[in-house]
Design goal:
- The structure is a single chain.
- The protein has one helix and six strands.
- The chain is mainly beta and 140 residues long.
- The protein has a single domain, classed as Elongation Factor Tu (Ef-tu), domain 3.
- It starts with 9 loop residues before the first strand and ends with a strand.
Length: 140
């Protein structure tokens, strides 16, 4: 397996209602996907498995969070739609395809937890979005 370069990645995003994303989100230059799992302690009273009694654990529930960011593009339908999710009374999850390269991707359903815009006098206007997974993730 070769090394993936960040410039090979991109993101598709759509409403999580079975509608496929049709084009990559414009202006995005960074994405993260942080996957975690709970460790459920199963140590019993009086545990003396070894001379130094140790705790025991079983895997628990899995979850994840992440973000996307880049420059704001007022022609990006997806960026405008994500901002509308945060300002509208209709809450809607999104389906995202996070591409590592042209053939490897994570498919997730996410609850958008925040959208941010920013700018500086000597730089570009920035856009970012944070999310929490709604269900699992698939790597293909």
């Amino acid at each position: 397996m070769g090394v993936n370069m960040g410039k090979q990645g991109f993101i598709f995003i759509a409403a999580a209602t079975g509608v496929s994303a049709s084009s990559a989100v414009v202006g995005i230059d960074t994405w993260t996907l942080d996957l975690t799992g709970d460790a459920v302690e199963t140590t019993a009273f009086g545990a003396t498995d070894t001379a130094l009694a140790t705790r025991t654990f079983e895997p628990g529930l899995k979850s994840g969070t992440g973000s996307i960011s880049g420059h704001y593009d007022d022609a990006s339908v997806q960026q405008d739609w994500l901002m509308e999710i945060m300002t509208d009374t209709t809450v809607e999850n999104v389906e995202m395809e996070l591409y590592l390269n042209a053939s490897q991707l994570f498919t997730i359903v996410a609850c958008v937890t925040g959208v941010s815009l920013g700018g500086t006098v000597d730089g570009k206007t920035t856009f970012s979005m944070n999310y929490t997974l709604d269900g699992g993730t698939t790597l293909t």
